[in-house]
Each structure stands twice: as C-alpha cells, then as structure tokens.
Write a structure and sequence with these properties.
The chain has helices spanning 3-6, 9-22, 96-104, 107-117, 123-130, 134-146, 168-171, 174-188; strands spanning 31-35, 40-42, 44-48, 60-64, 150-156, 161-166, 195-199, 204-205, 208-212, 224-228, 239-240. It has 256 residues and is α+β, with helices and mostly antiparallel strands. It has a domain at 3-101 and 171-245. The strands form 4 sheets. It has a 4-stranded antiparallel β-sheet, with no helix packed on it. Strand 1 and strand 2 (40-42) form a beta hairpin.
C-alpha cells in the first residue's frame, strides 16, 4: 500500500465511528478496536490539531486557501440512479464503514452534505454550486432524507418551496467530511489547499486528527488491533493482529 493509501486509515476509522453511533439498530458494533500503543479498547475521536479539543461544526470558520478557485465544474448529464444493490458492500464482512457508505458512498451525496455544512439550504443553490443535474440532485436529497441525514422544511407556502436542514445524525457527519478534506489537502492539492478552517474555541487554523478515545494519541494503521463480532469462515470473535506498516503491501488477509 502506498503512503497515500495508508493515510486513508483515519478516514476509515471516522466512518466506522459514525456507523457504530447511528446505524446498528441496537446491535453491538461489528468490530472492537484495541489500541496497541496504550493497550486499551478504544473508539476513534476527531480532534483539533491545534488544541486537541473536540470539534463541532458550529465552532468552525471557513476561508479561501491558496488553492481556491483552481477547479471548475460542468453540469452532469442525466444518467441512471445509484446501483440497485446497496447491501453488496456488506457481503461476507459486516462493517459500520460499509453501512455508512451505503448512505454517503457516492460523490454527489457527499458533495450535497459538504454544501450543507457551508450553509447551503435550497435546491437551486445546490444545483448552482455543484453543477449537478436536477434529477440526480432530487434523487440524492430524497436518499439522504430517507436515511435520516437531513429533513425538508417549508419556507414558503405559495408557491410551496422547501429547504433542507441537518438532523443530529447529519451533523455528526462533519467529522467525516473534515478528515477526508485533510487527506485531499495533503495528497491532492499540490501544497495549496483550497479551503482553510479555523477552530473558534482556540482561534487557530487546524486540520482534523483522529485519536484514541483512551490515550488521545493518533490512531495509526499498524498500531490498532481488532476483535470481530461476526463469523468469518464459521469462526466467531476472530482477532486481527496489527501489521507493520512496511508489510501492509504483502501481508495475508486478516479477519478484520
């Protein structure tokens, strides 16, 4: 695995945390993480890189970075809806990451969520900002509403018009967005991130860090073990040992 691929581990962790929090329907999480560094069971936390405090979407300010305005978009032509088998992501390996990706796993759904965190609420604003075809936008908004990420509210009666607002479940996706944003800034921006974010409680620019809930140290792929709570080849509670970073290209498949 390349360095860029290995650096996607925090993104996977934060998607897992969202799925564990919102998508289990009363079941136990499919995976239990163990942080090798501190030796404790843990869950991923997203914190400010400057003050190490928690991050809330309402406590973040945005401004253009050096790469702002370097990307243009064209209107997406009409095409068919999303794939018809959303359960395919979980075949053989139940996972809260897979459950989360069933909701936000295509680019338009995630970009709609991004725009909402920037304050966009209305259909025509989504369409203008994203260059997205109306049928695709209608489908994604309906999909996110059906999964409880957002809700539609009337803001005009005659003619009837609606805007879209996050539910608490939708607000909890902010951590996923800024962790993915940091990966893109690091690996895809050429050193010129298009957007800078400031944490209002500490008044510093920051990026999202994913840390252990017990020791508050960064979670690294080769320092995390897992217990699985589902059957793999008929075996329950399989244990996956951490792989050294240098071996991640060639190690055999692990249960988790």
């Amino acid at each position: 695995m390349s360095d860029a691929g290995l650096d996607l581990f925090p993104t996977m962790m934060v998607l897992l945390a969202f799925g564990d929090a919102w998508l289990l329907d009363g079941q136990r999480p499919p995976l239990q993480m163990l942080h090798r560094t501190c030796g404790h069971a843990c869950s991923p936390l997203v914190v400010c890189s400057a003050c190490k405090g928690p991050i809330d979407a309402r406590d973040v300010q945005y401004r253009n970075g050096p790469g702002a305005g370097s990307h243009t978009h064209t209107v997406e032509r009409k095409r068919s809806r999303r794939g018809s088998d959303p359960m395919a992501l979980e075949r053989g390996r139940p996972c809260s990451v897979a459950r989360t990706l069933r909701i936000i796993g295509d680019r338009w759904s995630f970009l709609v969520i991004r725009e909402m965190f920037f304050g966009v609420r209305r259909f025509d604003e989504f369409q203008s900002n994203l260059g997205i075809a109306t049928n695709i936008l209608t489908d994604r908004l309906q999909h996110l509403a059906e999964h409880g990420v957002l809700e539609r509210r009337a803001y005009r009666v005659r003619p009837e018009r609606f805007e879209y607002r996050f539910t608490p479940k939708g607000m909890d996706l902010f951590a996923s967005m800024i962790v993915m944003m940091h990966w893109g800034d690091k690996w895809l921006s050429g050193g010129k991130p298009p957007l800078l974010i400031r944490h209002k409680p500490c008044q510093h620019d920051f990026h999202a860090e994913v840390v252990c809930s017990h020791c508050r140290q960064p979670l690294l792929a080769h320092e995390v073990n897992y217990f699985t709570r589902y059957a793999v080849d008929g075996v329950m509670a399989a244990y996956a040992v951490p792989r050294p970073a240098a071996d991640l290209d060639h190690a055999p498949d692990q249960p988790a």
